[in-house]
Amino acid sequence: MLPTHPVSPGEPAPSFALPAVAAAETVSLDDYRGRTPLFLALMLGLWCPFCRRQLVQLGGYDGKLKALGVESLAVVATAPENARLYFKFRPTRLRLAADPELTTHRAYGVPKPVPTPEILAQMDTILINPTGELPAPLPISQAGKVLHERDSYALTPFDQGDVERQWPQLKGLFLIDRSGIVRWSYIECEDEGLAGIGKFPSEQAILDASRACAG
After folding, report:
1. pLDDT, tens digit, 9 for 90 and up, residues 190-210
2. Closest-CA residue to 103 (of 154, 158, 28)
3. Which phi-psi region, left, alpha or beta, contains residue 38 (left: φ > 0; alpha: ψ -120 to 50)?
4. Is there a domain that residue 141 lies in?
5. Is 134 domain-assigned?
6. Measured CA distances, 66 to 28, 35, 207 (Å)
7. Is residue 128 within 8 Å of residue 197, measured between CB atoms?
8. How many CB atoms lie within 10 A of CB 162?
9. What is d(CA 122, CA 172) in angstroms, rounded to the nearest whole number?
10. Residue 36 structural domain
């Protein structure tokens, strides 16, 4: 049975087994259980401009987390072959797994809001600038388009299919200890509603939580 709320600190982390992006192998929670804590990032497909930026951030954190004894894994919600092509040209230190159907998001209870008329109206009225790179905050519905243009990113057929399956799925971060228990989590928009779209906890918050998990 799927959880009705995000998996919370103190609860067992759901098991998973996903295709790796870097090689023809499977990545699973059992790879880490009993060996090392895991920082698990559940992202969307590469169509998401905020995810593309957050993957770069996570790559920058990887060495610092390893120094604390914590391994990192980012789950990218696109087909393995699509992810391989993207990261061939944009290499990352992160270990990556592919999950185009969002099975891991479902298992961890990461919300996917229903796009009601109210939510669609908020997408046109709530202003965001989560990375600080926009000249001024823009409506959610426009901010992503502007970032795509900045990136010169053209959606592929893979991306189009991912958007249709995934939007408006949210993202989640989880720190899992060696015994497979979640010790810290962050769910996009949990505190701020849609104003939190594209936001990430600070590097210090992630490192502090990782230090506590590894201790």
Report:
1. 999 999 999 999 999 999 999
2. 28
3. beta
4. no
5. no
6. 18, 13, 10
7. yes
8. 26
9. 21
10. 17-112+155-214
